[in-house]
Amino acid sequence: MIAAQTALETKMLLRNGEQLLLTVVIPTLLLVLFSAVDVVDVGELHGQKRVDFLAPGMLALAVLSTAFTGQAIATGFERRYGVLKRLGATPLPRWGLMVAKTGCVLVVEALQVALLTAIAFSLGWSPHGNPLAVVLLLVLGTAAFSGLGLLMAGTLRAEATLAAANLVFVLLLVGGGVIVPLDKFPGGVEAVLNLTPIAALSDGLRDVLQHGASMPWADAGILVVWAVLGLGLAARFFRWE
Q1: 3-state secondary structure string across the chain
Q2: Among 128, 139, 144, 204, which is disulfide-ready with 216 (CB 3.0 to 4.6 Å)?
Q3: pLDDT in tens, 101-157
Q4: pTM higher than the cut 0.85
Q5: How many CA atoms lie within 13 A of 187 on its CB side?
């Protein structure tokens, strides 16, 4: 039942044009645009290409768009229209529905990572580091953003979730170290931004893929804290109706 629901969730998401724009088109366009055009100062690259800085940030953005923004909006409207209530009355247990939604997120993220990686390689990307560290960071980022997305979808009205999720997406895109290095911000602001999950994910991926670090434990720790808080609060306050 969980596998069938996962497949259904994935098909519905991939058929949604607005979701595809958010999860696939925007990260892809940003990667190509900012890699080809010197619009944003990404700092000293020491002989590396702009794509070496931008590719890890786009992978983090892909996780944000799918696990947080897309999931929050879709789940919020499913809750408003009574879909979650009806699914909760089926033989599929409620925890099974949440597992299916998580499985859908992971499937879509795998497609996003494959697409963005292929495009980045075509732009001359030269990644380094341990692939297992990258996978662990992506999983922790997914857990953190999923918890926050479900918390928002399960506590706010659907229209409020739509507005808030898109606003948070834009703010984290600009101030999360995705395309603009955090050291471009004032010291106090940078310190706060470094504690956000998107900054931890993008900087952690950059440490591994751009600088060849083994495992950025500090960034991983921040993601673990956000994952525990988000998932814990979502489990406590999520309303199915």
Answers
A1: CHHHHHHHHHHHHHCCHHHHHHHHHHHHHHHHHHHHCCCCCCCCCCCCCHHHHHHHHHHHHHHHHHHHHHHHHHHHHHHHCCHHHHHHCCCCCHHHHHHHHHHHHHHHHHHHHHHHHHHHHHCCCCCCCCHHHHHHHHHHHHHHHHHHHHHHHHHCCHHHHHHHHHHHHHHHHHHCCCCCCHHHCCHHHHHHHCCCHHHHHHHHHHHHHCCCCCCCHHHHHHHHHHHHHHHHHHHHHCCCC
A2: 204
A3: 888 888 889 999 999 999 999 999 989 889 999 999 999 999 999 999 999 999 999
A4: yes
A5: 0
